[in-house]
Design brief:
This protein is an alpha+beta fold and about 100 residues long. It is built from 3 helices and 4 strands; from the N terminus they run βββαβαα.
């Protein structure tokens, strides 16, 4: 759907999301982020000591609560198990 168009014409038309990991003295910390492609700004994030689907849902929920995007927003991610999960897919459908 994004069709490699990484320069939207307005905010809240296209988000990208991914997970990275950070080594800490206490072990690995996983960070999920949601970035608005228009401003290249992080609009949602979440951290956890593991990578359940809830991690990416929490990051997307933060973005939705803060930005209130209209229905039709494109959210691009890889097809990792967290993003392909029923929990995440239901969240996307719930918000159109």
């Amino acid at each position: 759907m994004l069709n490699r168009q990484f320069n939207p014409t307005a905010p809240d038309l296209a988000y990208v999301s991914d997970i990275t990991y950070i080594r800490t003295d206490a072990g690995w910390l996983y960070l999920a982020t949601v970035l608005d492609l228009y401003a290249r700004k992080v609009v949602g994030w979440a951290m956890a000591p593991n990578m359940p689907a809830k991690l990416v849902c929490d990051a997307l929920n933060m973005a939705i609560q803060q930005r209130r995007p209209a229905s039709g927003l494109i959210v691009h991610s890889d097809r990792g198990s967290q993003y392909a999960s029923e929990l995440y897919q239901d969240l996307l459908k719930q918000h159109g």
